[in-house]
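Cont'd.
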Amino acid sequence: MRFLLRKAGFYALSFFIAISLAWLLPRLMPGDPIRRLTMKIVAAGTAGGGASTAGFLTESQVKRLYEHWVREFELDKPLHIQYISFLAHCFTLNFGVSIRYYPTRVTEIIAGALPWSLALLIPATIVGWFLGNYLGALAAYKRGIYDYVLYPFFLFVAQSPYYWLALILVYIFGFYLRWFPLGRAYSPTFTFSLSLDAIVEVLRHYTLPFLSVMLPYVGGEAIGMRALILYEMGSDYANYCESLGFNKWKILKYAFKNAILPQVTGLPLYFAAAFGGQIVTEVVFGYPGIGSLLYEAVLGQDYPLIQGCFFTIVAVTIIGNFLMDLLYAYIDPRIKLGYLGEK
Amino acid sequence: MIAATMTGFLPQPALATPEEITREEALICTEEAGSATIPTRMFNPYSPEAESVWYIGIFETLYIFDNVRFGLIPWIADGAPQWLDEYTLEIKLKPDVYWQDGTPLTAEDVIYSFELPKRYPETGAITLAMWPYVEKIEAIDKHTIRIYLNRERPNKPVVYVALCEAWIVPKHIFEEAEKQFKSITEFAFENPIGSGPYKLLRWESTRIIKVRWDDWWGKKYFGLPAPKYLIYIPSTGNEETNRMLMDAVVDAFAAIAPNWGDMMKYGVSYWFRHKPWTNPVHETRINMYLFNNERMNKRFGEYATAIKLAIAYAIDREIIAERGYFGLAVPLTDPTGVLPESPLAFLRSEDIVKDYTFSYDPDKAKEILDEANIKDRDGDGIRELPDGTPVTLVTIDVEGWTDWMAANELLKAFCEDVGIHVEVEHLDYTVWESRVITGDYDVMTYGVSLWNPGGYWGFLSVLDDRYPVWPLTNGTPARYHNEEIQRIRDEMAKYDPFDPAARTVLAELAAKAQEIIATDLPFVLTCVWGPEVGYQTKYWVGWPSAENPYAYGEQGEPGFLNVLIHLKPAKAIAPAPAPAVTVMTPELNRTLLALLNATQSINVQVSTIGTKISDLSDSIASLTSAITVLEALVIIVLLLQLYLIITVRRGGSPR
């Protein structure tokens, strides 16, 4: 229990530091989001807006407009008051209203985007984890041609950044071969239904982003598992089992159970990295997830939305890590004994 | 938040089977939005973040700007506006206009829409610009309004801009919304009721689908638009959207691309079938090198004008138009800003054109600098002033804005030829904005529009520091203060830009302004292009073109309504194929119906639960938002104390 409390305290502190940075860093970026909002409002009223905007509003009208929106988003308050207010609102998951998507609340925006990110990340992570570990074990167990072909492939995909792989997949399979659409979750005229056509349409759009997230993970897990299996197969208990005449497949099963432990530890770390790192994947594929949202929020200096997105990413990461710590104790009896021993 | 997540992922609960939408019935538009998502459901034209492409087709304006002839097309209005006297403008409405809920649209709705930004200046709507020059607007009867200009400060161009750009909204709905929200900008109008030919069918975070309203009042006057569905999808950038246009995933898009000619092979059409593809007479953007006149005068004093004049002769505008602006623009060699073929050609002063046409003449540029005693005194290839100050200029643009970047690189090359050193800085947008705000540049690429109801008065705004021009909230990037230009503009504002009788006086005023521009050179014009819109002809034809020259607008502009009523399907819609024969037994039928009902029922229940939990979380949020800053501080202090107590009791010292 003490161990758990200490873990919880550690995660709480990490969380606090992370969200504080999420509050501070956007404010250090050059630029003024309210100025941008003001100019957007002014430009919206005239044809050819943006660079072609003629000045129709007077200086005092623009100044009043600007000051209104500064007050509306409480950016006229001193920084320390803004910070304390932000912390207070974090307890209620109230990140306020988005600057970019006023007057929609940040929680609503994130709630709409989160399922898309999770729908991409969770299956890709699970499939990648299982596939990667089993392929890695297979390569280590069988050796020979399996190892010569699979291992270089693992190395290649493991080192590939998600976004680079995403671009390659889009270019080859989307643009050149035209086997899959170039992006988005479905076509503009798509109609939701349970028909086979509709399911195939969604899966076709899902394939490339799924592969771009899954493949690097397969490679990383496979390399790790391969090395761990090779190590375990050379350990004392494995040699002893072999000398007793145990079937190699049975020895592999024992080795697998030991080798899987570090892979389980790595799962939340990967999940966290992927969750934050799939920003570019979502932007490349036009997937309406948290990544796209964060990208746009950063470009637009939408402070509340940036804070909300980072809060979500950090919360998912930390909760995932904490749950994995508990799960680890469950699957590894030695750890469980260690936890109980502290009592 | 969890419940909202669950419902956010599900498609909108289908209480009825969703409509099947075929590509042949749908007109799909896009615009470069930076992201493929539409995170907010917002259809209030007077809320700052609602994009006009979201609600185009739902709302309408009194007039549409005729950007082919520089005129006005009555839309909700009936006939041209009439000046009863110099300061009173009367507009009649069509007598049978009504909202999509059947309520008649009357003068009250129009006046309400015009007055709304007065009560809520935070909307920043275009009608706000009108009010400093208007005393009042009143309804004479249900279908007639009168606008009374301020006699001390009339401004007719701005009034016309408002007539063409102000979206008319239903008073009976907005008045109720005003009671619920402290500002009308908070009203999302999630289920919009407009007067336009389209109604909202579905909103999703990746697209907005509108369906044609076959009872539209305007069908009597304009006919029904051919596209049954109007779909909007955001795009992540020009590259993606150009590709979608080529692949016929979208039908219309406004953005520049270096390969416009190549895209015609894929069925994309423009105004012209040849360069410059756009019609530069429809002067959407007059491109220029805009000087920071304040800094130039400070750095170079009396020599600033000579340097600017030399640059005017040093640049080859044909190459800038061809390479800098991808052949979409045509050169502008005189400072009038108006092409001889334009309907506004009467504003060109022939004297100015004769005396101040800046042809590409680097020798003349060198001669001007030599005569001003600006010479290369140390042999480094860069000219210096008599006091030794080197003539170096810093020019800035935004990284990724390829036309601006190319134009700046060309400026550098041309200026180096005549001994002026130019440093080009491609900056991130926020950094560029900061530099413009602080005035840390000597020159920059810029663009101004002439082609809107503001006309030449609007074009001169870049030189009038009383009216902030993007991206500044005060002043203009030209940092040019000239009271004569201000006086000319104020005088121009008294005249109707569409009135043939006003042409003579407007031309005289324009000539005075052009002379100031030609001699002071606050900017050097380079080239001009028309609206950079491309259309896909695979599914829809009848787009505006040189062969079919009717008034048009980009996807978010009122003029797009005029495009919609001109479109026709590219091919007749084939009858739907006969459904495949399925052997349907009663048992199978019952099972399928039960499954469908169960799915719909689950959708509805989840949605209901989601709504209830969302309401609950709203209540909790509003309740707990009452936690004051002081309470939060107390909590943090208590936690720290607890930590200290625990640590001390354990015998350690707090770290």
